[in-house]
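Worked example

This section walks through a single chain of length 477. The input is the sequence exactly as stored; nothing has been trimmed or padded.
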Amino acid sequence: MTQPLWWEADHGATAHPPTPIPASVSHPNGRSLTSTIFQMGDLPTRADVVIVGGGFTGLWTAYYLLAAEPALDVLVLEAEHVGFGASGRNGGWVSALWPVGPEALARKAGRDAAAAMVTALQDTVVEVGRVTAAEHIDCGFHRGGTVALARSSAQAERARAEVAHSDAWGMGTSWLNAAEARERLAATNVHGATFNPHCARVHPRRLVDGLARTVRGLGAEVVEGARVTAIEPGLVRVDTGDGSERNVLARHVIRATEAWTARLPGERRTTAPVYSLMVATEPLRPEQWDEIGLADAEVFSDHRHVIIYGQRTVDDRLAFGGRGAPYHFGSRIRPEFDHEAAVFADLRKTLTGLLPQLGGVEFTHAWGGPLGIARDWNPSVGLDPATGLGWAGGYVGDGVAATNLAGRTLADLVLERHTPLTALPWVGHHSRRWEPEPLRWLGVNAGLRVAAAADREEARTGRPARLGHALSLLTGH
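Given that input, the structure is written out below as tokens.
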């Protein structure tokens, strides 16, 4: 299950952030009034480690590097402002769930390595909570688990298979009968649900801003408005804004650009930027929550093919999102792509169909943005010791937790420490490149259409969709 994008006042929301962010008030230009905006003349000319990207991956990497080696010169370069991409706009699931199953990892690296990955992801959820508490980051971290409803017999069949799969790998997913499921979330047409305890709710914008403040306090330089045009061994090139470029030298350069990776030279086919959109309600009254559930701030979804996801926010709204927005030809990313009126309308309809208790409730926010998908749906992290170039990404929307694991792993790799993290099977993995256009456009958008068609087939027949196999072939998942 994935957890794509969150609101921020400066990038696509229809109102100001529903949950205040006291330490980071947004400026109309989209940058934080508490951030340090460097003039190009102040840009450092060298550092021990340059990290390209000021989202979760880049900031977690800076955090663990400086926690281990406070004397390091760590420079984070962000083209917009910290958390501008998926890190500031995601659905707030700190989840041990993973885009590919452990069987796929085991086929490449063996069962023990795949089992170690499962454990590492579960430990990561705890680690995010530990750091937010230790660093006093007020992001509403609460580990209430995730409930995924089965709302048809076909969904129930898939859900029970998931439980059996989970038992084989120690993933912790259990089956809830219909009454137990409705006790957690009083939705319509509930046949049962799966529940996994290894997931927490956060306000991601608060988390990314708090993390940025923390790494600055540890000594990192976080430069916003610095658009990197190229990454090369030992240096990055930064657009000066006057038609020229400046080089910043470094022993190690880390690419942490996720969906925006496709904009870098030579990386157009590394990841596909796929859009996910969200809506949010006004704050709900206590008696409304008594009717709905989510008393332990569980995040929620169901077992349909088109991904949906939601949470009870720290200020008692329902934030709800899903896929359905198209992939854009040539891996294009534009602000106007964050808004798809038809998708927003469908999300509101889906949520009120799921929870009719919301009848008459006002929807106050709508926003979206791109996430990065590797061709085999397998996130990766790595560092080439010969060139000093490192990377992490391709999280398929599961990045709120995975970025923390990536940051710890990259810190170990940079510092040449051989640890259990550096032996995990995603380390050094290279996904095959996406097909050239127009095949990429045809394939990704076909996958979205097939998922929707599979859900319609199941609604009509009550049986698992025959299109499910076609979807697996299209996505490589």
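What to look for: Confidence is low (pLDDT under 50) at residues 1-38.
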